[in-house]
Design brief:
The chain has a nine-stranded mixed beta sheet with strand order 3-4-5-2-1-6-7-10-11, with helices on both faces. Strands 14-13-12-15-16-17 form a six-stranded parallel beta sheet, sandwiched between helices. A two-stranded antiparallel sheet has the order 8-9. The longest helix is centred in the last third of the chain and has 22 residues, at 483-504. Residues 1-5 have low confidence and may be disordered. Helix 1 (27-41) packs across helix 18 (483-504), helix 2 crosses helix 4 and helix 11 (324-336) runs parallel beside helix 16. 38% of the residues lie in helices and 19% in strands. By secondary structure, it is α/β, with parallel strands linked by helices. The protein has helices at residues 27-41, 117-134, 146-150, 152-160, 195-198, 215-222, 231-236, 240-243, 247-252, 287-300, 324-336, 350-362, 377-386, 402-408, 419-424, 448-464, 466-478, 483-504; strands at 11-15, 45-51, 62-75, 78-89, 92-99, 141-145, 169-174, 183-184, 212-213, 225-228, 257-259, 311-317, 340-346, 369-372, 389-392, 412-416, 441-443. The protein has two domains: 11-263 and 484-504, Rossmann fold (3-Layer(aba) Sandwich); 287-481, Glycogen Phosphorylase B (Rossmann fold), CATH 3.40.50. The structure holds adenosine-5'-diphosphate.
């Protein structure tokens, strides 16, 4: 172990609804694992608490065993037993909570999207704190994420500090302010929180109605540190458009609010060692990248006639945030420009899923386009490796990981300048930006014309100047998007908060 650069060893416990690769829906899962590994590498004790979903990817958990303890936690006026499992994921100690509750909260064959999600996750937040208390742990930092574990912040101060779990500072990271988990105020009481105390405009009351509560608002109010996932997004959510009703609360607490750009887990995302690829490769040996492109084309039955035909890809959840109309436009525009297009994406929104199924059907036998409408981790790796460009035309994007993953695999990102995309992708043709920063193609306005223009500039570059394109590919592959630069920023926030608390004591 290397030791921490900024002081003593901290004990950090993450409480989260996702953790890659065992329970991943999107970027949240990647961040919990990537940040935890980076902090552990710096010598801190990092543990993670997640629900024991039936749909966990069990083969990624080492030494999973049930502990010889039952944690009892409160819900709806009584106590329920929880089985506690422990195992190692990516070298991190992880606790899995299995509630012995008749509603079988985590036996639903999916992570989210259940009608009782508010109950499922308020239950889990309380059980996680109960586990920490009953196990006698004394963490310095409890780090919760998104609305699902936002309940931890008010629960900690209102119920657990009085019970003696008072060693910790609370850090809350909001990965996307679109999802705030608001619900009728009456539901808040189930996990033991005091509805009358909390359903107030300066506490957890939702902006939309005075009989609704908002867990994310509660976490902003009650946490010691509040972060979001990029500096640009941290600015955007202070406005009414970006803040989704929370802008006033965020502005009130601006002193403890900061945007830190996510990193990616460079062990999991490494073209030189990636077991999902046909051939591993690195920036000095791009033949391997070409072999992956050939392999993907064969696998998807796309034409292999022209090696120099650009392959444009998109790997995404298909939700309005991601600019679905622009993604649809890119499919046809890429074909017009003489490229090939591959989409890997699935949608929780039935109309969007149906719309893309229709396009998928239409293009079923097309030799230059393929849509794969599902979640497929292994295929995503091959697509990053095989593609020449990756599009991310998001309407808003708190951080975005796919642009960073794409670059690491030598796929040049074409992105809308918003949120974390604005902090990580800089236009190749923009003379006002120092040349060494320029690493992709960007556009500002979310319309087909501006996006088309960026796509066309990228395709032209690829087709007309192979040497310069190769240099760009090598450059983006060598950029550092690891947690090495972002983890120390969290470490510093943790340390400062812990010292402030000790100073007061
Ligand atoms: P978000 O969290 O909004 O979904 P991010 O860019 O932060 O977006 O993270 C997306 C993560 O999910 C990336 O690791 C990406 O590779 C992965 N991903 C998205 N859609 C799919 C899919 N259909 N199949 C496999 N992986 C996917």
């Amino acid at each position: 172990l290397t030791s921490s650069t900024t002081g003593e060893r901290l004990h950090v416990i993450h409480i989260a609804a996702e953790m890659a690769p065992v329970a991943k829906v999107g970027g949240l899962g990647d961040v919990v694992t990537g940040l935890s590994k980076a902090l552990q590498k710096k010598g801190h004790l990092v543990e993670v608490v997640v629900p024991k979903y039936d749909c966990l990817q069990y083969e990624s958990i080492r030494d999973l065993k049930v502990l010889n303890m039952h944690v009892e936690s409160y819900f709806d006026g009584r106590l329920f037993k929880n089985k506690i499992w422990v195992g190692t994921v990516e070298g991190l100690p992880v606790y899995f909570i299995e509630p012995l509750h008749p509603s079988k909260f985590f036996w639903r064959n999916q992570f989210y999207g259940e009608s009782d999600d508010f109950k499922r996750f308020s239950y889990f937040s309380r059980a996680a704190l109960e586990l920490i208390l009953q196990a006698g742990k004394k963490p310095d930092i409890i780090h919760c994420h998104d609305w699902q574990t936002a309940f931890v912040a008010p629960l900690y101060w209102d119920l657990y500090v009085p019970k003696g779990l008072d060693s910790a500072r609370i850090c809350f990271t909001c990965h996307n302010f679109e999802y705030q988990g608001s619900a009728p105020a009456s539901e808040l009481g189930s996990c033991g929180l005091d509805v009358h105390q909390l359903n107030r405009p300066d506490r957890m009351q939702d902006h939309s109605a005075n009989d609704r509560v908002n867990p994310v608002k509660g976490a902003v109010v009650f946490s010691n540190i509040v972060t979001t996932v990029s500096p640009t997004y941290a600015q955007e959510v202070r406005s009414s458009e970006g803040g989704r009703g929370l802008q006033d609360t965020i502005n009130t607490y601006s002193k403890k609010f900061v945007g830190i750009l996510n990193g990616i887990d460079t062990d999991a995302w490494n073209p030189a060692t990636d077991p999902f690829l046909k051939v591993q490769y690195h920036s000095n040996d791009l033949d391997g990248k070409a072999e992956n492109k050939a392999a993907l084309r064969r696998r998807l039955q796309l034409s292999s006639a022209n090696d120099r035909q650009p392959l444009v890809a998109c790997v995404t959840r298909l939700v309005p945030q991601k600019g679905v109309h622009l993604i649809r436009h890119a499919i046809y525009r890429t074909l017009e420009l003489g490229g090939q297009f591959v989409l890997l994406g699935s949608s929780p929104v039935p109309e969007i899923q149906r719309e893309f199924e229709e396009i998928c059907d239409q293009l079923k036998t097309h030799e230059h386009a393929r849509l794969i409408l599902k979640y497929d981790e292994a295929l995503s790796h091959l697509i990053y490796a095989a593609s020449d460009m990756l599009i991310i035309p998001s309407i808003f994007e708190p951080c975005g990981l796919t642009q960073m993953i794409a670059m690491r695999y030598g796929s040049v990102p074409i992105v809308r300048k918003t949120g974390g995309l604005n902090d990580s992708v800089f236009d190749f043709d923009d003379d006002t930006i120092p040349a060494h920063y320029r690493n992709g193609y960007t556009f500002l306005t979310a319309n087909e014309q501006d996006f088309s223009n960026a796509l066309q500039r990228a395709v032209n570059h690829y087709m007309n100047d192979a040497d310069s394109w190769k240099q760009l590919v090598q450059k983006v592959m060598n950029l550092d998007f690891s947690w090495e630069s972002s983890a120390p920023l969290y470490e510093e926030l943790y340390h400062k908060s812990v010292s402030r608390a000790r100073g007061r004591k």
